[in-house]
Structures are given as C-alpha cells and as structure tokens.
C-alpha cells in the first residue's frame, strides 16, 4: 500500500496590521512636530511685532525730541552750548528729568527745579526709548526694587552715610553752594528716587551698583517711604531741619517769652 505524504500546512503569514505602539509613536511625533512648528512661528511673529512696536516707539520719541529738546541738546542729542550731550545717559535719566517736570527747563538757573510735568507717560516712555537707542545707559529700574518692602534699618544707615549730608537725615533737603540745593524727598516716587541714584542729576553723585547694590537702593527707598508714612513721634517736626529750626524757635519764642515775662513782672512790681 503506497503511503501518501500529506503536505504540512504553510505557516500563516504575518498580519499586515501595524503594532499599536507604532501608531502611538507616529501620532506623538506628528504632534511634536506640529507644536514645535507652531511655537517657532508664534515666537517669530511675536518677536517681529515687538521689534516693530519698539521701532515705532523710538520713532515717536525722535519726533518729540526734535520738536521739544533739540534746541538745547542738538538734533543728534550730542549737546550744544545750551545743553549737555545725552549720548549714553540712558532711559532712566530721561524718565527722571522729564517725569519730574525738570525738563524742559522753564528758565536758566543754578539747577533745574521740579515743576508740573509737560508730557504724558506714553510720550515720556517714547523719549526715553529714543535716547536709550542712541547708546547704552542706565535703564528704568525693575519694579521689584521699588516696592518699599526692604530693610528700613539698613536703608536708614545707608542714607545717613551717603545722602544725609545734602538731603538731611530725614530727607528734608538742604542748601548747597552757588545757589544750588538738595531737594526734599517727601512725596518723590520710588522710581524717581532710584533713577536719581543711578543717574546723578544736578549736583548729585552717581551711585552705581558697585557703590550701592540694587537691594541696598531698595532699602533706602524703604526708609524714605517709612519716614513719609510715619509722622514725627516728638510732635511738630519744624521741617525736620534739626537744630537749625529748633534753635530759631527757641530764640524767637523762648527768649521772647522770657523777655515778655520779665517786662510783665517789672511792670507789676512798680
């Protein structure tokens, strides 16, 4: 009897379907690519918009400068016989001088005095941006140093060492030479106090970050705002001018009272 060899069934072919893990990987790669492309496009667009906005602000500042400041400082801000060069003074100097009304000057004098502000905040920002674009200089300070939440005790010590000889220990101001003066600091904004320290307006020296750190400047502002918000514990402060006003008060009123009492006693005895 002949034996018939039955052929073995062929191995089933592998299915043509992808592994679930491969599908997940493809979806993840697609999402990553799409998200990255969108982020890159958005960043580029935002950067272009920011650059355009900055250029527009600088352009507005240049127009304002030409019509209001160039007479004294020159069209290129390089200075003239009537005004100094503004190359390198930075945005902080412009914000202080224009933001306190010292510029434009009302009249020639020993120093520019504080007065009503001529420009709006937007115009001041445009002027500051234009001057800052001419050369590197001190920038407008970061808001974290202006919150008056520092160490007031350290600020008081730093103020006595560096500032009190001109501004008085209580920030009441004082006279200088040649008709100049150190202004009172009561009511001055924290930003303008900081900007004055880093730009040195009028007769004031510059206190850069090597002299007084930003944190120490914050402490000084904290001390000044503490004085502003807390009245004199001894009663009427007489301008916080110390022995000058106190001595004058004693001479006029104290000595006057003694003389008046003496005259009254003498008249009664007669």
TrEMBL record:
Domain Cytochrome c: 56-135, 150-228
Binding site for heme c 2: 163, 166-167
Entry coiled-coil feature ranges: none
Principal place of residence: membrane
Record PTM: Binds 2 heme c groups covalently per subunit.
A single Gene Ontology CC term: plasma membrane
GO molecular-function terms, A-Z: heme binding; iron ion binding; quinol-cytochrome-c reductase activity
Catalytic reaction equation(s): a quinol + 2 Fe(III)-[cytochrome c](out) = a quinone + 2 Fe(II)-[cytochrome c](out) + 2 H(+)(out)
Keywords of the record: Cell membrane, Electron transport, Heme, Iron, Membrane, Metal-binding, Repeat, Respiratory chain, Translocase, Transmembrane, Transmembrane helix, Transport
Residues reported to bind heme c 1: 69, 72-73
Keyword Transport listed: yes
Membrane topology: Multi-pass membrane protein
Subunit comment: The cytochrome bc1 complex is composed of a cytochrome b (QcrB), the Rieske iron-sulfur protein (QcrA) and a diheme cytochrome c (QcrC) subunit.
Protein name: Cytochrome bc1 complex cytochrome c subunit
Record lineage: Bacteria, Bacillati, Actinomycetota, Actinomycetes, Micrococcales
